[in-house]
Structure prediction request, 800 residues.
Amino acid sequence: MSNPTTEQKRKVCLVGDFAVGKTSLTRRFVNNVFSDKYLTTVGVKIDTKVVEVNESQTAKLVVWDIAGESTVTSINENYMKGLAGYLLVADGTRPATIETALHLQQRTEEIFGSLPFVFLLNKNDLETQWAVTDAQEQLLRDKGWKIFLTSAKSGAHVETAFSWLAREVY
Amino acid sequence: MSQNKLDEIRKKYQSSLQSKADELEQCWRSAESSFFSENTVATLRGRVHNLGGSAGMYGYDTVAASAKRVESQLSGGPEDSASWRKQVKEDVQQLVTLLRDEATIVS
Amino acid sequence: MSDASTRQRIPDEAFRHMQRLFIERTHPLYLRFDRDMKLEDWWGDSDYYGFEPLHVGDDADSKVDFLVGVTAQDELELPIVQTPNGQPVSIHVRPEDTGLCVLILDAASEHERQTEIQQKSNEVQLLSKKQQMLMEELKATQIEVDRKRREAEAANRLKSEFISSMSHEFRTPLTSVLGYTEILENTLQNERSQLEKLGAISRGAKHLLSLIENLLDHGRLEDGAIVMQVRPTDLNALLADLRAIFTPLAEKKGLEFSIQTSGLPADRVLLDDMRYRQVLINLVGNAVKFTETGSVVARVHWDNGQLRNEVADTGPGIPEAARERVFLAFQRVNEDQESGAGLGLAISQRIVRIMGGQLVLESSGDEGSEFGFTIDAPIAPDDGDHDPASNREGTVVTASALGHTVLLAEDDDDIAQLVELVLEDAGYRLVRARNGREAVDKALLEKPDLMLMDMNMPVVNGIEAVRELRASGFSSPVIALTASASAAYRESAIAAGCSDYLVKPVDLATLLSTIAEAIADTA
Prediction:
C-alpha cells in the first residue's frame, strides 16, 4: 500500500564535537544559507532534502543534526537508531576535534555495525587558523576514508559530501 | 664625594633588581617553553652567573647564595627528569622572589 | 503503589483537572502503528506539530520523518527533537503486542531551558580554547621579537666595531703621510709652487684625520667605552687657546669672532678639559664654517658650579625640517653640504650628556643659529700646584696609583661600575673592555700597568684572552676575576698566564691591596 509518488527515504546523522559546524553544514546543504553566529543545538534537528541518486532517480535524505558530544551517549544512541549512514565532522582549526571524530567513528561502528560514512574536515575557509598538519591529514587519508575539506561558510564541497553519502546509502 | 657616588651606584643597582627579576623570569619561561634547549639554558645560566657575581659585590649575600645554587643546578642539567625541572623551577622562583623583595626595601 | 490505587486516592474531579492541565501544556499526540508500520489510529492535535493530514493505513516512513529506519520492535526515548515545521518535541516510542505506540509531547520550554545553559557552557569552552591559542601565539611572538632585538643589537655592535677597527687602520698611514709632508715642507722652503701642492696634501690629510678621529669617537661613545677624565682646569687659559685657534680663521673669512665671558672663577674647575674643548671647537668650527658674513660669538658664563655655554652665528640657519635631526649620527643638514661625515654634533651631544648636560639648538632662522649647553664645573679642591698641560693622562690621588692605568675586562656593567668607581677614586686611570677580544685589543693598544680580567666573558673568554696576550708579549700582571672557585679552574687560569686570582664576590679592600701589591712587584 505504499505511496508510489513518495521517494525512498534514508536517515543519515551528523556526529562530531560541539561547535565543529554540523548545524551550519546542514543549513548550507538544505537551505543554502550560512550564519557566523554560533547557536548550540540541543537534542536533535531533523531536516529533509531531495537528492539525485543517479540520472533517473531521486531520493529523500532525512538529516539528523545531533547535538555535539565527545562520545556516543545513550541518548545519542537513541537518536541515531535506524541510521543508514553518517557524516563525521571535525573542525580544522581545533585538532582535538579530529580525535573526537575518530573516537565517535569507532563507537558508532561498535553499536550500529559497519555503515557508510564520510569524514568532513570543516571550516576550511579559516586558512590562517587552520591547525591540521600535513602529517595529520595523511594519517586520516591512510585510513582509506572518504574525506572532504569543507566550508559551510563558502559552501565548498558541502553538496558533494552529502551527495556522495546519499549514493552510498541507496 | 666618592661616598655619595658609591651610594648612587648602589641605589642604581638596587633599582635594577626589579628588572633583573623580570629578565630572569623571562629567561626561565623561554627555557621551559623550549623544553630546556641548550641555548635557553645557557642564557639562563649566564644571567644567574652574572647575578651571583654582582649581588655579592653589592652586599646582597642571600641573593648571591641563591644564584650560586641555581647556577650549579643548571650546570648539572638539563636533565630530562621532572624532579630536576621542579627543583630548578622552585629555586629560580625563590631567587626571583628574593630579588623582588630586595628591590622593594627602602634603604 | 499500583495505578489503580493512585486512581482511587485522587477524586475524579481532581484527576480530570490534572488530565486537562497535562493536555493543555504538552499537546500530546498519540499514534499507533501495526506490525508493518501502517498507521492504525491516532489521537491528538496533529496540526499543532505540522503533520500532513493523517490517514489510516499511511506508511510510517512516508508520513513521519523521525520514524525512518524505526521498526515495530524498537523502544526509544528521544527527549528533544526539532523539525523545521514544528515545535521541539519529545518522542516516546514503545512496542506493543499489536504494533508500535508513539507518543509526542511538546518540549518547547525544556528545549529553551537547556539551550540557554548549553549555549553558555559551550561558548565559555570555545573562548578558553581561543584564549589558550592566543597566549601561545603571544609567547611565540615574544620569542621572535627577542630574537630580532638581539640580532639588531649584534648588528649594531658589529657596525661600531667595524668603524672603530677601520678607523684605526686609516689613522696610522695618514699620520705618516702627514709626518712626511711636514718633513718635505721643511726641506722645500724655497720651492713655492711645490710648497703649495704640499700644503694641499697636508690640508687634505689633516681633514681626513679629523674625520677619522670623529668616527673613532663615535664608535667609542656608542659602546659607552669613553670614560670622562675630570681634572682641575683653568677655564681662562682654555678659552684663550680657543680664541687663538679661531681668530685667524674668522679673520680670513672677514667674520667678527669674540668670546664673551662672565663670572669665571679665578680658581680652577673640575671638568674633562679635552672633551669640553672638543665640544667648543666643534660648535665654533661649524659656526665659522657656515657663516659667510657677520659674526660668531661664544658666550661662557659660570655660576655656582654650573658652566653655561652659548655659540651664536649670523649664518644661514638650519632649515626647520632638519632641526630635529641635527644631533643624529651621519646626518648632514644639506645633502650638498661640502664636507664632514655628519658626526660632529652627534659626538658633541653625547659628550655633553656624559658631562651631565644637554646640547640644545636654542634658535635658528634667517638671522643665524644659536647652540647652548650647561655642564657641571665645580671648583676644584685645592690639592697642590698642577700644570694642566702636563697632566694629560689622568688624576693623581694616591701615591701608589700615580699615573697607573688599569684595564678592566668585565662584561657585567653592574660590577664594572663599582670597580671603576673604587679604582678611579683610588687614583687609577681606568680603561674598560667588555669581552675577551676587546680586552686583548685594548691591552695591546693602551699598554695598561695591570689588567683585571673576568674569566667568563663573551666572544673570547678570559683564559683564551690571557693566553693570547702572553703570546703577544704582554707582560703586565693580569688578575683573574671569576665566580668559579674550583682549584682546577684556578690552575688553568694561572697556566694561561694569570698572575693572581680573585673569586667573586670580591671584597673591594682586598681588590685594592691585591692591585697595589701586583703593581709594586713589577716596579
Confidence is low (pLDDT under 50) at residues 1-5 of chain A. Chain A has one domain: 9-169. The longest helix of chain A spans residues 96-112.
